[in-house]
Write a structure and sequence with these properties.
A: 132 residues; alpha+beta; B: 2 helices
């Protein structure tokens, strides 16, 4: 794949999936604490999301950041728009705004503390979209 | 952090991160913490954030450290507020 093809594939993945997370590792085996926490919050909201592992090819991260103008991983997109990274997603989760933005019913008692997330496990997988 | 045997490595201090944010964003006040001078957390308040989305606010701060995030600055945990 050329850099351009990678960028096109990323843009298509973002437009094809209402909720998509670019992360290190997979939802089942996150390879970074920030990615793990973001996955845990999405799972707590029981919202379906696609996930792309940026680790298998450094160009995925490079092209993604060029496209999104956002330097860090993870990156959460909703309906083609960048929602933010782990810090913003955490803030929005705790205020109940994330559930609102994603159009899922806020769980009883929200706002609430963000779930801690699983321990990061270095198990990168191939690039793929996972519809949880 | 400075070790005479490794003079090449220039790690930014929390104070340097704070100073650079405040110099780059007009009216900004930053509180910066670091446990290890590699992972930083910052609370940034600025009038310049008014009317901007959180993503746009964070971008203003990230832009200060373009190319250094993931390098000398491994992580910058960020919280922004309109002042």
């Amino acid at each position: 794949m050329s850099d351009n093809e990678i960028r096109t594939a990323i843009a298509e993945a973002i437009s094809d999936n209402d909720v998509i997370l670019f992360m290190k590792g997979s939802p089942a085996a996150p390879a970074c604490g920030f990615s793990a926490r973001t996955v845990a919050m999405l799972e707590a909201l029981e919202t379906p999301f696609a996930a792309v592992d940026v680790l298998p090819d450094p160009r995925i991260r490079q092209e993604l950041s060029a496209l999104s103008k956002w330097p860090t991983i993870p990156q959460l997109f909703h309906k083609g728009e960048l929602v933010g990274g782990c810090d913003i997603v955490t803030e929005m989760y705790e205020s109940g705004e994330l559930a609102q933005t994603l159009g899922v019913a806020a769980t009883v008692g929200a706002p609430q503390d963000a779930p801690a997330g699983a321990d990061p496990a270095p198990a990168p997988m191939g690039i793929e979209n996972r519809l949880a | 952090m400075s070790d005479a045997r490794y003079p090449v490595l220039q790690m930014p201090s929390a104070h340097e991160v704070k100073t650079r944010i405040e110099a780059a964003i007009p009216g900004a006040r930053a509180e910066v913490d670091t446990a290890d001078e590699v992972h930083f957390s910052a609370l940034v308040r600025a009038g310049a954030f008014e009317g901007l989305s959180r993503v746009a606010q964070h971008r203003l701060v990230y832009d200060v450290f373009e190319g250094e995030l993931g390098g000398a600055i491994h992580a910058l945990a960020l919280k922004t507020e309109v002042s």
